[in-house]
Structure formats: C-alpha cells, structure tokens
Amino acid sequence: MAIENNTKGKLVRWNEDKGFGFIKPDNDNADIFIHISALKSMSRAPIVGDIIHYETGFGDNGKTRAINAKIEGVPQALALVPIARKARPERANHQIRNTYVHRTTRSTRAKRGSKIIPIMLIIMIVFATYSRIISQKSYPDSSKSEIAKIAEPPKLAEAFQCQGKVYCSEMTSYDEALFYLRNCPGTKMDGDNDGDPCESQF
User: Fold this and answer.
1) Which CATH class is domain 7-71?
2) Three-state DSSP class for 4?
3) Domain ranges of the chain
4) Which H or E run contains 118?
5) How far apart are CA 202 and CA 194, in angstroms?
6) Can you say whether residue 105 is alpha, beta or left, with left for phi > 0 and alpha for psi between -120 and 50 degrees?
7) Residues 145-178: tens digit of each pLDDT
8) Which residue, 23, 48, 85, 173, shows the most beta carbons closer than 10 Å to its own?
C-alpha cells in the first residue's frame, strides 16, 4: 500500500461537506492541504486520525498540496472513481421525508379526484332531471296559452266591441275581459301573461 518515495502523515482536520482537510506530516513540517480528489482510488472517504501516504504537488494557486494519496490500511476501490462523500443522516432522513410527503400528496390528490368525479356526475344528472321536470311542468301552461290564443268563438266577437276599456274593474264578465284581452289594444288585465284575464276577479 505504501507509495515509493512518498511522505506520510496523520489527517488532523477534515471538512466532510467541502471534501478537503489537512495532514500533519511525520517530519513535523507545516500541515499540508489535501483534497478528496487526491484519494479517488480509495474505497471510503478519509476520517480524522487516518494515516495518509501521499506525494507532494502544487495546486493552481502555487501552494503545496498532497497528491496521489492513499489511506493506510484501506483497500482501493475496484473502479478508479471519485469517492462520494457520505450523506449526513439528517440529509438522508430529509430526503426520505420529502419522498414520503410527495407520494402522500399525490395519493391524496388521486383520492380526492376519484371522489370529485362521481359527485360531479351526480350533480349533472340531478340538474338534467330537474330541468326536464321543470320543462314538462311549464309545457302545459304554454300549450294552454297557445290554445287560448286560437280564434275566439264567434259569439264573443258578436257580443262585445272595443270601447276603450282597459282594467278588469271595467269588465262585466269573464267573456268580456277575454274579448278585450284578445282584440283590444292597451289592456291591463293579464299581469302574468298566461292568456287568462282577471283571474282574481272571475
């Protein structure tokens, strides 16, 4: 596991979130920076106290850093891929909770939708039935009104004449009121327009 012509030291600090830390070399030199990418062949991430074997290199900023590092006693990974930082338990729990909440929300919405559709269908059926009943009830009245407008019997035309009467109080009989309603202009004897004049009087 040792690297030829390498240096080793103890990992004294490690920032798991940012993936870097510092090694205290065995030769008592100044602490040296190490990034997780330098340990890409390891099967686990480093922890404080690990003995690290490394070579010395320089970063983009010109500062010394550990490269080609290995953790003493830790086997290499089968594939040379970067080591994924361990997810914090609280993060894992948070993801699980979020997944559960999303699934529960979708399930609740699906249940609400399955309940709403039958209710809407029932409302539509009730409304259609009610409209049909109302139209059936109103049809006889309209038919009666249409029938009432058929040409009046000859006897009414012969018995009465338009003499400027307008109100029910001026009528002497239902037949006279009916004649005025059908033949004379300006009458005010059929407030509900059903073709039946002076209903409260006769």
Assistant:
1) mainly beta
2) coil
3) 7-71, 151-202
4) helix 89-148
5) 15
6) alpha
7) 555 555 555 555 567 889 889 899 899 899 998 9
8) 23
Alpha-carbon span 69 to 38, nearest angstrom: 5
Q: What pLDDT score does 142 carry?
A: 47
Asked whether the beta carbons of 26 and 72 are under 8 A apart, the reply is no
Share of the chain above pLDDT 90, in %: 29
Cβ pair 67, 57 in contact under 8 A: yes
Pairwise CA distance, residues 195 & 192, whole Å: 8
Name every residue whose Cβ is closer than 8 Å to that of residue 184 and which is 6 or more positions away in sequence.
162, 165
Q: CB-based contacts of 197: which residues, under 8 Å, 6+ apart?
A: 168, 171, 174, 177, 178, 180, 181, 187, 189, 190
Residue 69 main-chain phi, psi, to 5 deg: -90, 155
User: Binning pLDDT at 50, 70 and 90, where does residue 103 land?
Assistant: low
